[in-house]
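Incident log, structure service

09:12 report received: a user says their structure output differs between two submissions of the same chain.
09:20 pulled the input from the user's history:
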Amino acid sequence: MRRREFLSLLGGLSTTVVTGPARGGETPKRVALVSAAAPITQMHDGSTSVPLRTFFEELRRLGYMEGKNLIVLRFTSGGQGERIPETAREVVAAKPDLIFAFSSRMVQQLTKTTTSIPIVGYTADPISFGIVEDLSHPGMNFTGVATEASSEFDGKRLSLLREFVPGASRVAILAPGSYLRTVYGNAFRAAAGRLGFTIVGEPVEEPVTREAIEQSFARFAAEHADLLVIPDVPENILHFRRIAELSIREKLPALASARQFVTAGILMSYSADAVDLVRHAVAYVDRILKGERPGDLPVYRASRYELIINRNTAEKLNLIIPPILETAADEIISD
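09:34 re-ran on a clean worker, output below:
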């Protein structure tokens, strides 16, 4: 077995292709599924990742079946942000009929790497990342779904987190410098300033490793951070379980932008309804494979957001869920 194939089977950083004979002479569609964080071993219809599982379920509902009329090529950067450009080149070199990509940075890089292969992206605000100028008419070879209305969304998250600890004044953000230098980093600093917070800590050292994240938590503790915001960046997704463990160990109330962090032990999350977004995105996949142009399809913005709270974590942090949040929560995890 060649080394690249071996790494793929381990869910590593390379590409794996699931193929099968087309039935009835039909030429199967070749779709590249690209993640900046998820391992290849999670890219299937039984995935523990809700967005990935929904992707395959929705394709099947629309009549696409691997081994019949569909070939899925799987790519990942394995949570290593520095590998995103290389992964984008690998994807384009495979010449799929369409690219479906998770992560704003991945989509941003893919649109720089190809202007001809259709791309459907699952991103934050694509305008803030410079992917498009107009959501209604994205143009070029891109369309998709946006999890956030703008880069100002972390301000809303910070306000929700403060409800738990009204007297908090020192906030940290767990993110590498490459994120903090974007418009999102600038928006977070502005929101923290408006709310009267002092930002403590330094960017996570890059390349981001488990040890680098542990060092960041040590700095947060040394600088007496009261609260922590965890952006939905690939590096954090890769290490989400360890991040949850550290937040509890350091008694640091934290808010993330993905539900999986809360199930792992983070205090709360506020994020778009991933199932709804993926369903809309896969509908675009279907329309493009049937001949429509991606640039003519408006980027769909999330209209529903979910507040998830972990009651067990609140108790471990000696916090009581405020009535306003208990009423507003879409789900409170108690086991």
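09:41 both user submissions now match this output. Likely a transient worker issue. Closing.
09:42 reviewer note: The longest helix spans residues 274-289. DSSP finds 14 helices and 14 strands in the chain.
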